[in-house]
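hey can u run this one w/ zinc ion bound, need the structure tokens asap thx
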Amino acid sequence: MSGNRGVVYVGPGKVEVRSIAFPELVDPAGRKANHGVILRVVATNICGSDQHMVRGRTTAPAGLVLGHEITGEVIEVGSDVMTLQKGDLVSVPFNVACGRCPMCKAQNTGVCLNVNPARAGGAYGYVDMGGWIGGQAEYVMVPYADFNLLKFPDRDRALEKIRDLTCLSDILPTGYHGAVTAGVGPGSTVYVAGAGPVGLAAAASARLLGAAVTIVGDVNPTRLEHARRVGFETVDLSEDASLAEQIANLLGEPEVDCAIDCVGFEARGHGHSGSQIEAPATVLNSLMEITRAAGKIGIPGLYVTDDPGAADSAAKHGSLSVRFGLGWAKSHSFFTGQTPVMKYNKNLMQAILWDRLNIAEVVNVTVIELDQAPSGYAEFDSGVPKKFVIDPHGTLKAAA
Ligand SMILES: NC(=O)c1ccc[n+]([C@@H]2O[C@H](COP(=O)([O-])OP(=O)(O)OC[C@H]3O[C@@H](n4cnc5c(N)ncnc54)[C@H](O)[C@@H]3O)[C@@H](O)[C@H]2O)c1
Ligand SMILES: [Zn+2]
Ligand SMILES: [Zn+2]
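ok here u go:
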């Protein structure tokens, strides 16, 4: 059992499946991690966040093993672990969190203070997030396992729903966090920017939270067609009518109660010609325009501190042309940052197990083999309406 293979970032536009080291109970600083477990990876998903790195839009180094969306089976248990056993099936929050620092104690696990010497917050397989080895692989190490891992209560039932449960490591809690922070409740009118997996997860979460109407916007007509198929209203921002006009056509007024940015810094501009070019502040500015006074704006979409591929020198350091005065004038609240997955994953697991949430269908989970990861990355990057889930050991195939 000493071999391991994983998806490695090679350079802009290029990933490869390579032989990598079998994980050890050791942290990135080389300290023994008796609080950790080794997982045999059952499912690991490709994320829009990975694409920022693979497109060369971050300072990710070549050789990085990718993968922060992980579901697995415990195969080795560190001597300090108390609550997990070999054979347990678990969901791994993409945040690496120590469970001991003031942030973790307050459930702000997205900004744990002990897992990344460079800044608050750690994650597996991600640039600037502490050097934890990614899980788009056959095996991976998870530290502070008692704290981090969510154990599925019934293995057989979990395997039946595994295509849905794999979304608990990131996109479902992330979309839900976006909806919760935007203040979605019964009867809310909601706009979600972005019809990628996170946008669709936010829309599904808004529906679960009781929204009256959920409108999803994108510049990609194929993704919008899929969003309509799974029950959401849509606006096409590659058309020349403005977002406010298109919302007014649907709602009779140009504003919504709650808005969620599920796009981030690689946003396209709006309109026929605008959508051909990148305009990183478009979503933030348009959300301030269409969110009612005193409304809340959830911003799970990623904004970076350094973007070597940005069009101008300010954006290269994460400075965008945001019309903050508009949001200020309307008394808006803004909610940013990495999602603290642990705040939500247990309840969302129950919602899945009790058929309240068909997330796999909503995001169109598409299962591939580990060796198909490079083509999965390329296809996802082309904007297909799919959420690619890697099945490194054929477990999902066998369970289907
Ligand atoms: N905060 C977190 O913890 C967290 C977690 C997961 C993902 N994310 C981020 O969420 C974002 C979405 O992730 P994803 O996997 O769905 O990515 P994705 O790239 O598949 O989807 C983004 C979508 O936005 C669309 N888009 C571009 N410009 C737009 C505009 N002006 N208006 C509306 N739509 C526009 C694109 O066409 C695309 O369909 C990414 O930035 C990702 O890094 C954040
Ligand atoms: Zn992700
Ligand atoms: Zn911590």
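The pocket of zinc ion (ligand 3) is lined by residues 97-98, 100-101, 103-104, 112-114 (CB under 6 Å). anyway lmk if its weird
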